[in-house]
# Entry
Amino acid sequence: MALSKKPVNGMKDILPEEMQIRDYVQGVIKDTYRSFGFTPIETPCMENIGNLSSKQGGENEKLIFKILKRGEKLKLDQAKEEADVVDFGMRYDLTVPLARFYSNNANDLPAPFKALQMGNVWRADRPQRGRYRQFMQCDIDILGEPSNLAEIELILATTTTIGRIGFTDFEIHINERRILKAMALYSGFPEDAFDTVCIILDKMDKIGKDGVASELEKEGFDTAAIEKYLGLFDGVAAADNGLKYLADTLADYLEDGVYENLQEIISAVEATKTAKFELVFDPTLVRGMGYYTGTIFEIVMPQLGAACGGGGRYDKMIGRFTGNDVPACGFSIGFERIVLLLMENNFKIPTQPAKKAYLIEKGYPSDKLVEVIGKAQAERAEGKQILVVRMNKNKKFQKEKLTAEGYEEFEEFFNK
# Structure
């Protein structure tokens, strides 16, 4: 039987044209984040299954690629449940691995620690446009900073990066998990129903307000509570300052300082941003991860019609490893979706060096070949990109393919 030449469903081969764009985007991301003081790190692609299934990753915990025990440890005939045969899993994001990394290495790291991490993650998800089962994530996190300086720096670093890649007129939506909780309590939902209410609210952009009301009714919630809850969103829409409206309305349910903290973030970012974007308070923003404890934010690009990255504060995660909570906040760029948009818009790398091809006819004398290679080396030293290849019989087709790859100049060497 012939071997399959297609990649696994939900994963893809990356051709040279896309790879060049990916390398360029990664370069812009790394250079910009380093200018904000973030330090690159790396974590393994696998984690202990207990870390990944600790009820911190929300719906993503249902999408873990799990790894069987190996050798003598794998005893299928004695297995009664999944834990008997599984010990590791492929990471579904970079945040849980970062928390483990920090917990293991905190004594060797500065405080606060500004981490930059780029790497592939894996989710057993349903593939669709811009969504794969293996994809690159680009995260920055600040660990050990309790103040909103962390949120301000993360939003500015991320938006500066997106602006340098070439995007304008995008939006950063921002909200607070404690505001979401106060809204639910104010409306009369039981405190233990908070997660259920938020999961339904998270669908607002897809099913609308009527759809949210219908799903809340199906869960058996009181009609008066549902009407009071949805009325809050009407109030935000009608108010000149939606955040201030909610802060005043929820005063008896909202923790002290939440409004001031979020307003300070918004004001500081608006006053110091360098990219062209709008910062929007969005009371429907939930973020699905179970580990968020405070501020949450998301990148929205009109061209994509979907989120293109996000993050927030997760002050309780590291304590799950060490027993002592450490303030933590992070932001992840939707790398794959950014690359997709650039590819669809025929993006051209602005700083790409000149590309030149040397085509050498078959049988070209070896002494002269050395001279040609030496000439290529000299041009490479000047910063040019030189390809040295044998000339094909169908030279015209060969040059057409090279031109499509960005080669603008050709030099031919014939056996004469």
